[in-house]
Design goal:
The chain contains five helices and two strands, in the order E-H-H-E-H-H-H. By secondary structure, it is mainly α. The C terminus is likely disordered.
Length: about 130
């Protein structure tokens, strides 16, 4: 029986105190995921960090509201973040992809059903089998 685990990595785990990506830590994470996969364990990596990554890429000269800032930083940072994951996982011949979600994807309705098919969906009163 193949096991599946989900690893959630937040921005604080991916960045150094100066706000730059911690490539050494990301590389160690990829090494551990590759080790698990070699033992027939499916790993789903849920990674934050796009906004933090993008914030370091841009020097904004004018004031933006918080939604605009997050969208801009996220758009810039996501490309850099997935590119780095691609390079790190490629060393192990592991293909990567991304699914971009919003909180609406997890609310009941059509988006929720598309994002979270019933075969993998659990509610607080259920536990995965």
């Amino acid at each position: 029986m193949k096991h599946r685990i989900v690893v959630k990595v937040g921005s604080n785990a991916l960045t150094r105190p100066d706000g730059r990506l911690d490539v050494t830590r990301m590389s160690a994470l990829v090494d551990q995921i590759a080790w698990l996969r070699q033992r027939d364990i499916e790993v789903i990596l849920v990674s934050s960090g796009a906004v933090a990554c993008g914030r370091r890429e841009l020097d904004i000269e004018h004031e933006l509201d918080s939604v605009e800032q997050r969208q801009l930083f996220s758009a810039m940072g996501q490309a850099k973040l997935i590119g780095l994951y691609y390079d790190l996982f490629r060393e192990y011949h592991i293909h990567v992809g991304q699914v971009l979600t919003m909180k609406e994807n997890f609310e009941p309705g059509e988006q929720y059903r598309a994002c979270c098919p019933s075969s993998t969906r659990t509610t607080p009163s259920q536990s995965p089998s």
